[in-house]
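Re: export button greyed out
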Amino acid sequence: MHHLLLIAHGSRRAASNEAVIALAEAMQQSAGLPVRAAFLELAEPSISEGIEQCILAGARQLDILPYFLAPGRHVQEDIPNLVSQAMHSHPQVTWRLLPHLGAARDLAGFLLRHWQDTPP
Amino acid sequence: MHHLLLIAHGSRRAASNEAVIALAEAMQQSAGLPVRAAFLELAEPSISEGIEQCILAGARQLDILPYFLAPGRHVQEDIPNLVSQAMHSHPQVTWRLLPHLGAARDLAGFLLRHWQDTPP
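Workaround output, generated via the alternate export path:
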């Protein structure tokens, strides 16, 4: 089955981590496919734990979506390295590392709709 | 005139800051209204400089959009405090502090479209 893992940085503030988990749940509701959240640091599940959870839940294709705005070290090195390790450990899974949120097509349009939709 | 200021954290990596400025330019192209970027730290213009630029360029209404995912200290304290100071310095301007990107309506839907639109 096709699964999505949303990877966030993780925060010392529980509310920030809970917002990411709620976002993954909202995505799962809309998509009708399993969506989980995992965190690079400071929160659980870790990325490795999140990947294991997806595979234990039956993922045959696992897409990884970095919930990051900036193309910094986390997006360019840390997350690809962790995903690469997981690919070697689980060769039976089809993997896809999506572009991070900050590189999503039409993010400008989404921000403009957010601007226009916000009540005065 | 109505202006939008997109506020990002700012990074030591020039590419991250340039991506934010390019995003503001893409928004301005689509919106047909002035959109600028400013940075909380590590990059220029600062938030205060960005606000001054908008006002010098004729902003009578200035909307502030925090380009942040997490509702942490920057979103909940630092940016509101800076905007509050600017409001007191420029009472002739109509101000609006929008919810940060991570709280935008239907962010889940946008992320799902990003997932579905990414080629295999």
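The domain at 2-117 of chain B is CATH 3.40.50.1400 (Rossmann fold). The button fix ships in the next patch.
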